[in-house]
Design goal:
The complex is a heterodimer of chains A (112) and B (112). Helices cover 0% and strands 54% of the residues of chain A. Chain A has a single domain, classed as Immunoglobulins (Immunoglobulin-like, Sandwich). Chain A is globular, with a radius of gyration of 14 Å. Chain A is built from no helices and eleven strands. In chain B, strands 2, 4, 5, 6, 9, 10 and 11 form a seven-stranded mixed beta sheet that branches. In chain B, β4 and β5 form a beta hairpin. The N and C termini of chain B lie far apart (38 Å). The chains are: A mainly beta (112), B mainly beta (112). The interface between A and B is medium-sized, with 24 and 21 residues.
């Protein structure tokens, strides 16, 4: 069945430190998406990666898609308190209607 | 631009009572619609999805049901709530399956 493992589950960092979350799939992916959910809020789409080895940047956020298209990472440089939240990766399911399957998320806490 | 609404924002219901949560989308036609549940501090569990009016697919067996009486309206219902139904219910839409999903603000349900 469809599986995606996201690590770590929780991460506490001091403000200014870097942060990375990883998603690993058991199968080759056509694409991967990343979402951010602020505390008390709803998930918001950040980015989609499609190409093998793709790297995309959004200000202090760097997204990578592995060469084998089985893993992805989100790296935040010099975290700020506004980065607090849970980061989810999402992959297309391979059955049925090709919905999105969300990872378990990484909850980031930034200590001021 | 497209917007997605959910109501109510919060709800406290006794065990055994009925439930009706509503989601509406504006600014798009024939969207794919989704209902997710998120337990406190957990990931997203897909409950139902719909490709069109009257077409509902269920992902997990439970005492919840969904309906789509109009193109841009998605309703989540229950005849008798259980304690385990407590959670954060999120509605989302997308243009096509596997593509970016846009989430509503969610409904926090507490069953006592």
């Amino acid at each position: 069945g469809q599986q995606v493992m996201q690590i770590p589950q929780y991460q506490h960092v001091q403000e200014g430190e870097d942060f990375t979350t990883y998603c690993n799939s058991s199968t080759t992916l056509s694409n991967i998406q990343w979402y951010k959910q602020r505390p008390g809020g709803h998930p918001v789409f950040l980015i989609q990666l499609v190409k093998s080895g793709e790297v995309k940047k959004q200000k202090r956020l760097t997204f990578q898609f592995g060469e084998a298209k089985k893993n992805s990472s989100l790296h935040i440089t010099a975290t700020q308190t506004t980065d607090v939240g849970t980061y989810f990766c999402a992959i297309p399911t391979q059955t049925g209607a090709n919905n999105l399957f969300f990872g378990t998320g990484t909850r980031l806490t930034v200590i001021p | 631009s497209q917007t997605i609404h959910q109501w109510p924002a919060t709800l406290v219901q006794p065990v055994g009572s009925p439930l009706s949560l509503e989601c509406t989308v504006e600014g798009t036609s024939n969207p794919n619609l989704y209902w997710y549940r998120q337990a406190a501090g957990r990931g997203l569990q897909l409950l139902f999805y719909s490709v069109g009016i009257g077409q509902i697919s269920s992902e997990v067996p439970q005492n919840l049901s969904a309906s789509r009486p109009q193109d841009r309206q998605f309703i989540l219902s229950s005849k008798k709530l259980l304690l385990s139904d407590s959670g954060f219910y999120l509605c989302a839409w997308s243009v096509n399956f596997g593509e970016t999903q846009y989430f509503g603000p969610g409904t926090r349900l507490l069953v006592l």
